[in-house]
Write a structure and sequence with these properties.
The chain has about 475 residues and is an all-alpha fold. Helix content is about 60%, strand content about 5%. The strands form three sheets. It has a two-stranded antiparallel sheet with strand order 1-2. A two-stranded antiparallel sheet has the order 3-4. Strand 1 and strand 2 form a beta hairpin. The longest helix has 30 residues, at about 245-275. It is globular.
Length: about 475
């Protein structure tokens, strides 16, 4: 496979996505309001001054309230929204890593930036890492397929999902979510590079562990999918060392992968203890939210939200109208979609957005890797099957992406609050699985009439998904 035949169309597609990103971040309503949030900068300034709390001090009237977390009681009193109030000081429950990096940079190059810069860097970086990962997966497993799949896949990764619309609303929540996903995907990319070689490259495992640590310290919910990927990765390493009889290498590989995560856990535990006198409190309980969070704390996460959230994230339709750009997002529903359960009054849906199965039907191909793995699992223990072949590198790739998708979805499906930006927690893995499934199907049916029909159907679904998502990002930017 000639590199220029791969990299040139890939580069053109990537440049197109970055330009579209730049356009979307320039048209958001934050521009007309003239501001965005600057939480990362505020915390970075505090770090520079040797403190963990924000420099802004709470209003004395707020501190005088019997319950400052009660929204009605503090009506009319200025507060730092979404900050955590504890023992007379403001803290941030958002992960500290981006602010720590900004504090280091600001000591060298004085800079004051809002959270919109982090959103653009993280979403652009996530897109670049996803594209590199897809290119590596394609070259490793599907190099016999036409090279045209590569730019098509890059457009799918960059222009479907919530990314373009998040750029029109580049505040702290979008920054934290996209940052966590960027570092998590970068960690998976380095794990992929490490495991594809024999022997396994330990320094790349170390890089994966460091990047996954950065992800957790940016977005704590990434602990769930990253834990799953670490376990799957270690099991693969164990199996590979067993096959090659390299028992002495297992310890060093394990240390390279796990040590950064253990150090990260210790530092985050200290960070929590120093702020809230608790190893496991990140500040959510003390958040000054748009409702009395403490009074509703037991209802923030519940399995009663799962069905409703699945509907809103995957099955909420969009509208087609006669005016440009024709596809319009509609509000999700807060009414139970089935009569056999009730939703707490706390349940809320933010803004307008379309369910992924409607807006991105290309994701239907993500079923293929799961089905193939199920078939393999049901046949692996049949007589005559070689035990050394129970888990190969492709299986690790598919298992990790499936595990990341499922584990990343769990906190979101259990959450009382629905917002389009939360799709970022699982869409990256799901999109990659969709591309892998499309390639699997094309490879299986290649050279047949059914294969041609399959290929053109997939291309059609990909084009439709990209165009609809661009339209929805444009029409939904204010809703």
């Amino acid at each position: 496979m000639e590199k220029n035949r791969i990299y040139l169309p890939a580069g053109i597609a990537g440049l197109l996505v970055i330009c579209i990103y730049a356009w979307f971040i320039s048209i958001g309503p934050w521009r007309t309001r003239g501001y965005t949030s600057d939480y990362y900068y505020q915390l970075a300034t505090s770090f520079q001054h040797g403190q963990l709390s924000l420099e802004t001090r709470p209003d004395p009237a707020l501190l005088a309230l019997p319950d400052p977390y009660d929204l009605k009681a503090r009506k009319g009193i200025p507060v730092v929204g979404d900050a955590s109030l504890y023992e007379g000081r403001y803290y941030l429950y958002f992960g500290p890593f981006p602010s720590l990096v900004l504090a280091v940079i600001a000591n060298i190059f004085p800079v004051k930036t809002g959270d919109q810069a982090f959103v653009y860097i993280f979403i652009g970086g996530l897109f670049c890492v996803q594209s590199l990962l897809f290119l590596a997966i394609f070259r490793r497993f599907f190099s016999d397929l036409p090279n045209g799949i590569i730019p098509l896949g890059i457009l799918i990764l960059g222009l479907t999902g919530p990314f373009a619309r998040m750029l029109t609303h580049p505040f702290i929540h979008e920054a934290a979510i996209s940052g966590g996903q960027f570092f998590a995907t970068a960690g998976f990319y380095f794990a992929f590079l490490a495991l594809k070689e024999k022997p396994i490259k330990h320094w790349k495992l170390l890089a994966a562990g460091i990047l996954w640590s950065c992800s957790i310290s940016t977005r704590i919910t990434q602990l769930v999918p990253i834990s799953v990927m670490v376990v799957i990765t270690w099991l693969f390493i164990f199996n590979e060392n067993r096959k090659l009889k390299l028992d002495s290498k297992l310890g060093s590989a394990t240390l390279a992968l796990i040590a950064p995560l253990l150090l990260c856990g210790v530092l985050l535990a200290w960070y929590n203890w120093a702020r809230f006198d608790s190893l496991f409190e990140f500040g959510l309980y003390y958040q000054l939210a748009g409702f009395n969070l403490q009074a509703n704390y037991p209802s923030l996460f519940s399995d009663v939200y799962i069905i409703q959230n699945i509907y809103n994230y995957f099955l909420n339709p969009f509208e087609m109208r006669g005016s440009f750009p024709f596809a319009y997002a509609v509000a999700g529903t807060e009414n139970p979609v089935f009569p056999f359960y009730e939703l707490p009054r706390l349940y809320a849906v933010e803004g307008k957005f379309a369910g992924l199965l409607y807006s991105t039907p290309f994701l239907i191909f993500s079923i293929s890797p799961l089905l193939i793995l199920i078939i393999r699992c049901t046949t692996m223990f049949k007589p005559g099957n070689k035990k050394d072949n129970l888990c190969n590198f492709f299986d690790w790739t598919a298992f990790s992406l499936i595990g990341s998708f499922i584990a990343g979805s769990i906190p979101i499906l259990l959450l009382f609050y629905v917002g389009f930006r939360y799709e970022t927690e699982f869409i990256t893995s799901l999109s990659m699985l969709g591309l892998i499934g499309f390639c699997q199907g094309w490879l299986l049916l290649r050279g047949t009439t059914a294969g041609q029909l399959f290929a053109w159907s997939g291309i059609g679904l990909a084009v439709f998904s990209v165009l609809v998502n661009i339209a929805l990002a444009f029409t939904g930017r204010t809703g």
